[in-house]
Design a protein that fits this description.
alpha+beta, Jelly Rolls, seven-stranded antiparallel β-sheet, globular, binds beta-D-glucopyranose
Length: about 750
């Protein structure tokens, strides 16, 4: 659609406010406005419609101008499983814009979406998030959004749609952008088609350069895996067609095309309908994701751990698409709360998630049921079929994300914004759980989702009431911290009492006098220890049982989405450092290393990604990659102990199998950097940078000051004494080089 307008004076400033029920690309005088992709991103459009504001001063001039837009289904009109299309509203698609011109005289004029716009069909025949885009270049109308174009009979006045009742709000989070280009790693002829391997699983699309005759159709099929014959295998995408088509206009100079309003999760693309063999330069992989800036870089001297980090980072990129999604490829791409809950610790190391979280928490509140239960997906496109109850471990994202965000950036505003919603959630559980055990109102109870021993995905290998009660404690602990930070004294007292009540009830129901917890599953032990649900006198016994269980299974984890992320913390906290590394470095099935050895370039949804049920098998899910949070905190040694990293702890879990480790992390106060080495003789060295307004509590493997050199001289920093066999040193802002003799 387009509209001519005239700027009657010199333009001092021009701003475009724009959004759609659908997805849009806006143009002024033939040029694209901004570089946001797939805007506006996923949300509950019946409640809130986010717009963006662009400074377009340089795009508008005195005299004749044109504003235009292409509009497609986007998240509003595409299929969003299982509700079908238009999960949050009704057709038609709508476009809303307001161009505000401020003339040098100070006079303000507005060009808005009204009756005066003209519309015509575009070359995009169909575009859907899951299914892909069909484009017919013969239908292009060059210059359609520029002055001097004369709309012909194909153009008609737009229809004015009924107005919306949802709130219009500015977007606070970064847009989805084009974040990188990948070159083909290989290009093979298979059954008359061409299969390109980008060597990396990612989210985005392929950009192609083709030559041929008008009407010739090129088809691109996207997939994460290949069939034995080398063609793409889309079996794990379920109903998502993940196919783009391009019909050539027949330009003898060649044609370059990429889709606008869809995306795919893939590593391979199969191209058919070409007249000539493509060269690697004819097909590029375009990587897209929300432009949350990178804050963390791990440097661990072991290829398994380092690759595991890279893979989880790619899974984060692929799933940061306006909202945090579960996967980028099959017919879901939904804001699954459990996945985000467990991954946020790692996510907030890798990237600055402050505004991304702020944006999504508004969706989480929009999806919250009136009774206080947080939904299991936000936005909740399943609200017509799902019970209005809270799934343990999924709903908790509503508390844990604000907590994590406050911890990382030190700003209590995120607590205040979500306080009411978070207290309502705890209130929902409390009202159902008089006896201190959360057993009722679990809704769809996913349990320790995809645990190794489960016979089907949601099989309860750990008692659901144990998980529910542990999650309740987990969220209550976070509420206590947040109540304290925001001086909510009464709430702090209430939550403290609640925590004590849960502790007592949990111990009575699940902790047996011989140290067994629940049914003796690993996840039962892990959650009980992690959330302080074990009476102090039994802790060692319980931890020993976890250790023995893992060892008796062959030094492997049997845990799923909820147990896995905390497994290594619990082992490290209880003195099982060597088992931590056994698990991290393991390469046989099941393990993180197994995925790496199988050539994974992202984190798999399930331990047996290579062999599991194909319908529930994504190769790009970040939940099991949550362990990367542990690697930043407990191996690289950047462990936040005060909000905003005002204070952090360097106390790495060490093992001779890993000779070096470290990370850099851009905290709000500046760059923290750690680099340690441990040589075969046991000599340890740490190079450390502590930014302004930050203090580090450094635990060095020495019990005697004389074994430590600081910047080549005897120890100068203040020692705080020996804790667990390590010398603790207080380090203020500055750069340090500590050398510790074995
Ligand atoms: C999603 C998950 C999600 C789960 C809920 C799946 O289909 O992909 O990651 O958390 O359902 O149990």
């Amino acid at each position: 659609m387009r509209r001519d307008f005239s700027a009657t004076d010199a333009v001092a400033q021009a701003r475009l406010y724009v959004t759609a029920l659908g997805a849009y690309e806006a143009y002024i005088n033939g040029k694209r406005v901004g570089d946001a992709l797939l805007a506006p991103e996923s949300m509950d459009f019946s409640k809130r419609i986010l717009y963006r504001v662009f400074d377009v001063t340089n795009m508008v001039g005195r005299g004749a101008n044109v504003i235009g837009a292409m509009v497609a289904d986007g998240w509003y009109g595409s299929y969003t499983s299982p509700q079908g299309r238009f999960a949050f509203g009704n057709p038609p698609l709508r476009f809303m814009a307001q161009l505000e011109l401020t003339y040098s005289s100070g006079r303000v004029e507005r060009v808005v979406t009204d009756q005066s716009w003209m519309i015509s069909a575009s070359p995009i025949l169909k575009s859907d998030i899951y299914d892909g885009e069909d484009y017919d270049a013969r239908r292009e109308q060059p210059g359609w959004a520029a002055p001097g174009f004369h709309p012909d009979a194909k153009w008609s006045p737009v229809a004015i749609a009924p107005s919306v009742t949802a709130k219009l709000q500015p977007t606070v989070s970064p847009p989805i952008r084009r974040m990188g280009l990948l070159k083909a790693k290989s290009l093979k002829a298979v059954n008359g088609s061409w299969v390109v391997d980008f060597g990396q699983n990612f989210a985005g699309w392929a950009k192609i350069r083709v030559k041929g005759i008008a009407g010739q159709k090129v088809t691109l099929k996207f997939a994460e895996i290949l069939k034995p014959d080398g063609s793409v295998d889309q079996a794990n995408l379920r109903a998502a067609l993940a196919t783009d088509t391009y019909v050539l206009k027949g330009d003898p100079a060649g044609e370059v095309w990429e889709p606008r309003f869809t995306y795919h999760g893939f590593r391979y693309v199969e191209i058919s309908g070409l007249s000539n063999a493509p060269t690697p330069d004819d097909v590029m992989g375009v990587v897209i994701h929300s432009d949350t800036s990178r804050t963390g870089h791990l440097r661990i001297g072991h290829p398994i751990i380092q690759t595991l980090w890279q893979n989880s980072l790619w899974s984060q990129k692929s799933n940061f698409m306006g909202i945090p999604t579960d996967c980028p490829q099959r017919d879901e791409r939904l804001g699954w709360m459990g996945d985000a809950h467990v991954f946020w610790d790692a996510a907030a190391f890798n990237m600055d998630v402050s505004t991304f979280t702020q944006r999504w928490m508004a969706d989480v509140r929009d999806a919250q049921w009136p009774n206080g239960a947080f939904a299991f997906i936000s936005p909740n496109s399943m609200r017509d079929t799902a019970p209005n109850e809270a799934s343990p471990g999924w709903a908790d994202a509503g508390v844990i994300l604000p907590w994590t965000t406050w911890q990382r950036y030190g700003d209590t505003e995120v607590i205040n914004q979500n306080w009411e919603a978070m207290s309502a959630y705890i209130g929902y559980i409390a009202a159902l759980s008089d006896d201190g055990i959360w057993s009722k109102g679990h809704g769809w109870d996913f349990g320790d989702w995809l645990a190794l021993d489960s016979r089907w995905p949601g099989d309860h290998t750990t008692p659901p009431d144990l998980i529910g009660t542990a999650m309740w404690k987990h969220s209550t602990l976070a509420m206590m911290d947040m109540a304290k930070a925001t001086k909510r004294q009464k709430a702090l007292e209430d939550y403290t009492r609640l925590a004590e009540k849960i502790d007592a009830a949990f111990a009575k129901a699940f902790v047996h006098s011989d140290g067994t917890v629940g049914n003796g599953s690993q996840t039962g032990y892990i959650l009980a220890l992690r959330y302080n649900l074990v009476p102090p006198q039994l802790r060692a016994e319980v931890a020993g049982r976890l250790h023995d269980n893992i060892v008796s299974r062959g030094r492997l984890l049997t845990t799923g989405f909820l147990g896995t992320p905390h497994s290594l913390d619990v082992l490290a906290d209880n003195g099982y450092a060597s088992l931590v590394y056994d698990l991290l470095l393991r390469t046989e099935y099941p393990s993180w290393g197994y995925m790496v050895m199988k050539g994974a370039t992202t984190t798999w949804e399930r331990w047996n990604g290579d062999a599991g049920d194909i319908s529930m098998n994504s190769f790009n899910h970040y939940a099991l990659g949550a362990v990367i949070g542990f690697v930043y905190r407990r191996i690289a040694g950047i462990d936040p102990i005060e909000p905003g990293f005002r204070r952090f702890r360097f106390n790495p879990v060490l093992d001779r199998r890993v000779a070096s480790g470290g990370a850099q992390y851009d905290a709000v106060s500046g760059r923290i950097s750690t680099d340690w080495t441990l040589n075969p003789e046991g000599h340890f060295r740490l190079r450390l940078s502590v930014p302004p307004n930050t203090r580090a509590e450094v635990h060095l493997p020495a019990t005697n000051q004389t074994n430590i050199r600081e910047n080549g001289k005897p120890l100068a920093s203040q020692s705080l004494g020996i804790v667990n066999g390590r010398m603790v040193i207080e380090a203020g802002p500055g750069d340090y080089d500590f050398a510790v003799r074995a």
